[in-house]
Prior knowledge:
alpha+beta, Adenovirus Type 2 Hexon, domain 4, six-stranded antiparallel β-sheet, 8 helices, about 10% helix
Amino acid sequence: xxxxxxxxxxxxxxxxxxxxxxxxxxxxxxxxxxxxxxxxxxxxxxxxxxxxxxxxxxxxxxxxxxxxxxxxxxxxxxxxxxxxxxxxxxxxxxxxxxxxxxxxxxxxxxxxxxxxxxxxxxxxxxxxxxxxxxxxxxxxxxxxxxxxxxxxxxxxxxxxxxxxxxxxxxxxxxxxxxxxxxxxxxxxxxxxxxxxxxxxxxxxxxxxxxxxxxxxxxxxxxxxxxxxxxxxxxxxxxxxxxxxxxxxxxxxxxxxxxxxxxxxxxxxxxxxxxxxxxxxxxxxxxxxxxxxxxxxxxxxxxxxxxxxxxxxxxxxxxxxxxxxxxxxxxxxxxxxxxxxxxxxxxxxxxxxxxxxxxxxxxxxxxxxxxxxxxxxxxxxxxxxxxxxxxxxxxxxxxxxxxxxxxxxxxxxxxxxxxxxxxxxxxxxxxxxxxxxxxxxxxxxxxxxxxxxxxxxxxxxxxxxxxxxxxxxxxxxxxxxxxxxxxxxxxxxxxxxxxxxxxxx
Length: 504
């Protein structure tokens, strides 16, 4: 990575006007900012050319795509994957219900030449947090097909008097006391107790809808948008035609055990196994073209340009709860000398064969908060952040609702998760099964994230950022992994076709 912490990049505005001496058929006032995403202030023709790119390097652990230096890369370009499950038990299997196909990628890197422009480490766990902000109806109607994210909810009703009698419940066809996962398929609930009900998944959600083969026959394809891989692209589009260096996308894959989920009622010996299919691993790259005079005018006007973006840095820490129900830590997560907008962290179980949550519909993509102690009381939570010799909050936060509010404020959006999934206070998740998994056991208290916006707009001093955190009533006898991401502000400059990056 080419990083210069102390160098201030050029400050040329990306939308600088044309020099009057520069001959150009298009007036400077009519040259839009071609890098920005959104509507342009002028009416102009736009053409899109689509290329299907094969990997230039491929293995079970790594692949690389190389982009062509032409046009402007559309930020909604996709990367398509398919998995071959023929090496497994043959039992039906799906991708983790909350993150879908994003589970297969552990690390994503965007490189220009030899310089790392954007990097997301722990990408699959990162997307667990990001997927919480996807509208559940979008998951049900769109993402279930494109990325295999399935998390939509619905109230659970009894389907007639016979079902009510079998379940022993007090609700009816017009009253419900709990909810379950909504996959768009009716539950076979008549004359069945709640625990005997099982929601099936659509055939297109299965990794093996028909007999799988190494050439991809009978497998399902899913896709990842590149602006999910690199948040840098959510606000900017890459002017590839203005760049002289090679542009690479590098993906590091998670191991097989972290990629998918088998049915909850299969034998423990039937381990999930799925290998990536090389012929199906492709990038659908959309290149945007405007009239040549506009693209030439923009290049002449912005031979030396700069822009701001955010990148994420991951810090991992082990939390050993083998001897106690509660854990308190003071953890330095770095950030010294950087401008940090926000941070967020979660607590998950490690990837070990003895992990009891391996057989969850979420696989390992969970974030635990405090559960109930031996007396049935909800464990206490305490949180604060200290940087630049001051605490972010004058009093430690010990209220779960306040923590949820802070996450909402930091993201500018409400996460689509219930109180039970966050802290497990109400017990409203059904005990019926989803793909053979008990919904209550797999979803309760598995989406607890703590997020803070660092609103002082100042560089972090040499001491870095310290997290003061207490989890009460964690399940004992387990070792957890805490993952914390820092959102760091960076600059990029494009001068004479050469891209450089700097920390703000």
